[in-house]
Amino acid sequence: MSSAGEDTDDGPERMYVITGGRSQAGDQERLDLVTLVVARSMPEPGMPPEHTAIVRMCHYPLSVAEISAYLELPVSAVKVLLADLLAGGRVEARAPIPAASLPDIELLEAVMHGLQKL
Fold it and tell me: How many beta carbons lie within 10 A of that of residue 33, not counting itself?
């Protein structure tokens, strides 16, 4: 029986178990909060529950921040889990598509003037 102030579900022990005691993983350096993750396979029996949850939720691209929020886990723990899934080929990570930059006004004016002269 736990005491009133004790938080057994989200304590450091749970994070240790979820990440296998790791605080960093090899592919973490390419993962940031806006990196998009998409599943490349279906979950397999025997996968840890957090890995299964990530693979299931990533049928369409989700950012690392979104995955962290949905799982209610720290981003650092999610990055370790994602590195495992990346290494196993279960998910794919990619940078978000950059927003289109504004067109060069001077170039547009030059094109417009050139077309007017035709």
Answer: 12
Statement: the pTM of the whole predicted model exceeds 0.70: no
Contact 70, 57 (CB under 8 A): yes
Establish how many alpha carbons lie within 13 A of residue 112's alpha carbon, considering only the half-sphere containing its beta carbon: 6
| H or E segment to which residue 37 belongs | strand 36-39
List of domains in the chain: 12-116 (1.10.10)
67-118, pLDDT tens digit by residue? 999 999 888 889 988 988 998 999 999 887 776 667 778 888 888 888 888 8
- Strands of the 91-94 sheet, one edge to the other: 62-63, 36-39, 91-94
Residue 71 DSSP class: H
